[in-house]
Every structure is written in C-alpha cells, then in structure tokens.
Amino acid sequence: MEKGKERAVNLLIITGMSGAGKTTAVQSLEDLGFFCVDNLPPILIPKFAELIIQSGGGIERVALVIDLRGREFFDSLSEAIDDLSNREGISFHILYLDASDQTLVTRYKETRRRHPLSPNGSPLEGIHAERELLSELKGHASQIIDTSMMKPLQLREKLISQFSQRSSELTVNVQSFGFKYGIPIDADLVFDVRFLPNPHYIDELRPKTGCDSEVSDYVMQWPETQEFVSKLKDFLSYTLPHYQREGKSQLIIGIGCTGGKHRSVTIARHLGEYYEKDFQVRVTHRDMEKNK
Predict the structure, then answer these.
(1) What's the burial of 283, exposed, middle or buried (CB within 10 Å: 0-12/13-18/19+)?
(2) Contact 289, 264 (CB under 8 A)
(3) Separation of alpha carbons 200 and 194, rounded Å
(4) How many CB atoms are located within 10 Å of the residue 100 CB?
(5) Beta-strand (E) ranges in 130-185?
(6) Which helix (H) or strand (E) covers residue 92, if one does?
(7) How do residues 65-102 score in pLDDT, each as one tens digit?
C-alpha cells in the first residue's frame, strides 16, 4: 500500500473509575476484533501508535485500557493525547466508564478487592481521590457510559451494538425514560414531554405502553403534541448534521415523561422512525417495563 493511502488506525482509549467495567469492556472489544492492550503506561502511547502505523494497515482497530494501576505514569497521559491529536494516520476516541459511589463501594465489597488508591483505607476514600484525579480526563471523553444500573452482560451488549459495525456515520440513540427513575447520565440532549396529555389517566390505556397503537394514537392526536414534534424535528434536523460534521460518532437523545411508559415511548418511537432514513438509529425504552 502506497504511503499516504493507508487507512487511518481507529484507536479507542478506555479509562474511567476502577470497578466501572473496564475489564468487561476490553474483553468485549477483543471479541469484536480489536487489538487490545490492558494497562499500557501513557508514556508509551505515542511509541505504540507509531508502531501500529508502521504495521502498514495490518492493525486497524486498537483499544487501550488506561487506569490508575499505572498512576506513576498518569501525568503523562495529557501529553500523549496531544501527541495523538497532532499525528497523521490516527483517529482516536476516549471512552470513559463511570458509576455512582454507592455502586462502586458495593462492587468492591462483593469482590473483596482493595481500591488501588486506598489499599489500607476504605474504598470510598479511594473512589473520591480517583474522581478528583480523573476529572479533567473525563471532560475530554468522546463518550461517557454510566454502568451503575448495568450488569456486565448489558455493558457488553451496549459495546457490541456500538462498535461491531462502527463507521463514520452518526449513530442516533433515542432513549425514552421516566423522570421518577432519574435522568440518563449519558444523554447528550434531554427533552421533557410531561406537559403532553397523559394516557395514564385513561383506564383502558393505563396498562398499555407507547408501543401500542391505542396509546400512540392518543398521544399524537393533540395539537400540542403535533406542534412540539414539529419544533423538535426542526431543531434536530438542524443540529444532527452539525454534530456529524464535528466528528461525533454517537448522540444520545433522552425523551422523558413521568414513568417512561406512555408519552416518552411514543415520541421516541416517532423520532426513531423519522430519522432512520438519514442516520443509524437505535431506539430503546429504559423504564417502559418497570410499571407493568
């Protein structure tokens, strides 16, 4: 292959909180054909990238796990990222895995592991120290995944869904949710549809969901719904191409109602059907089954 015509190496840097699922992530990506390196010292990243480029296209997708086991080299990570930004032949993204303090403490207690930053103290002390150390890096992340409510299999499925057919196109994830269960932490945009007429107060519609035609017809029949959907489409139709142009590979749009069963599901499905002709679209309903 002639020089200058090599395909860019896709480099994924996986980092985040200890106990948030980095081991599951790297195992999942390895199964997808990524060349994976666990716990590479950041100071070696530029040299490693150079070797990959010199492979002449033999390795195209690489995942590096960077965590606090190599904390003596961690200060050099910022310099390594700057080097990657200025290096031709490398397209890199940072995937940051997070979880709540309570979830991380529970996981440490279940596994009886010691936190790397608090080997002789409580796990919570180490978690707080780690959050502070990683705060700047988190701000540079291309994607943040909160695994607090995820089992390892769910994280694996999410990563496989995202990276098995990765392309330069923007993937739009539309997720319905219920505000009473909390806002999705990884959502890029959140829209509140609790102002729309609520099927919950119609006896025959209450046990159904927004996936049922009776519910979706009820939600969509109102003038305020039609006007809101029209304005939302105008906004998204303007912004989505700009997100894509700026190199964003995934956009998560949260649509929330009270319980995440009727209105949000209806609107999320409608948006998914509308944009599937122009983008890779995935529609999920986080809380739809919780009220059954």
Answers:
(1) buried
(2) no
(3) 12
(4) 16
(5) 143-146, 171-178
(6) strand 90-98
(7) 887 655 556 667 778 888 888 777 778 888 999 999 99
Only one residue has tokens 């010199």, namely 54
CA-to-CA separations, 241 to 104, 166, 171, 244, 250, in angstroms, rounded:
37, 18, 11, 5, 12
The CA distance from 6 to 10, in Å, is 12
Tokens standing for residue 136: 């700047």
The 10s digit of each residue's pLDDT in 175-218 is 999 999 999 988 999 999 999 999 999 999 999 999 999 999 99
pTM recorded for the entire structure: 0.55
Tokens of 62: 């690489």
Residues in contact with 15: Cβ distance below 8 Å, sequence separation at least 6, in sequence order: 22, 65, 66, 67, 94, 95, 96, 97, 134, 137, 141
Quickly count: other Cβ atoms within 10 Å of residue 164's Cβ: 12
Which residues have CB under 8 Å from 39's CB, separation 6+? 65, 66, 67, 69, 70
